[in-house]
Write a structure and sequence with these properties.
The longest helix is centred in the middle third of the chain and has 16 residues. The protein has a single domain, classed as Rossmann fold (3-Layer(aba) Sandwich). The chain is an alpha/beta fold. The protein contains twelve helices and seven strands. It is about 40% helix and about 15% strand.
């Protein structure tokens, strides 16, 4: 079975989508078979990769609408990005309607976990770009995940989003037999800024054993890649951001 990595934080602008796309590409460059799923109704990852929902034959929304078990849904919603070769499931604005659409559905928090079993040994890693708000989508992602990666911008306001996601984890852990495993990934770090250094030290002190060794520094190449509908490795595989996501991928692959 693939290792499922949920990438989430209940604060926006912390590098969640950048992490999903860059880490997915880094793992692929290490000969891993990767699927990226956009579970955010804003569909930022999809738009970044030029998968516009209105032009897609299927999206993540279709997966959650299936009332009966249908393994064939994956063949309808997985598309391959021509430039990167990454397999991708686009998001859709209608994912925001799932609270209503699944209101009376039993075990609605297990939809994604059960569906992922149909992929068998097709992938080594499945990366889930999660929505920022608590709801059926985020619950599905956390329940299905083997590890939650929490990107945290090294900024004092970002610490509030960290507290919110921890509250959500505690709520889910009360009802799940196996607790949600998580690790924090510091992002947008600028070692020249004293505030960034202080926040990083706070995270290290509070989260011993729950923080990656890798730290993602600020890099203008991320913006350049986004503007061109590419990932950072397509722009410059040797730039600092690309090297750091490669280090993160290797850290994740360690036994």
């Amino acid at each position: 079975m693939a290792r499922v990595l949920a990438i989430g934080n209940q604060k926006g602008g912390v590098g969640k989508t950048t992490t999903a796309l860059s880490l997915g590409s880094a793992l692929q460059r290490l000969s891993q078979r990767v699927l990226i799923m956009d579970l955010d109704p804003h569909a930022n990852a999809s738009i970044h990769m030029a998968f516009f929902p209105e032009n897609s034959r299927g999206t993540a929304y279709d997966l959650f609408l299936e009332e009966k078990h249908d393994p064939g849904v994956w063949d309808r919603i997985i598309v391959r990005h021509e430039d990167t070769g990454l397999d991708f499931v686009p998001g859709h604005i209608r994912l925001s309607e799932l609270e209503v659409d699944t209101r009376d559905r039993p075990n609605k928090g297990l939809i994604l976990k059960e569906a992922l079993k149909d992929l068998d040994e097709r992938y080594d890693y499945v990366l889930l770009d999660c929505p920022p708000h608590v709801g059926v989508l985020l619950v599905n992602a956390l329940v299905a995940s083997d590890l939650l990666i929490i990107p945290v911008q090294t900024d004092f306001l970002a610490l509030h989003g960290l507290r919110l996601i921890f509250d959500t984890i505690r709520t889910i852990n009360r009802v799940m037999p196996k607790g949600v495993r998580f690790k924090v990934l510091p992002t947008m770090y600028d070692r020249r800024a004293g505030a960034c250094r202080r926040v990083l030290n706070i995270i290290r002190r509070k989260l011993k054993g729950h923080m990656f060794n890798t730290i993602i520094n600020t890099d203008t190449k991320f913006r350049e890649a986004s503007a061109k509908g590419k990932v950072i490795y397509d722009i410059d595989p040797n730039t600092r951001g690309a090297v750091e996501y490669s280090l993160l991928a290797k850290e994740l692959m360690q036994p």
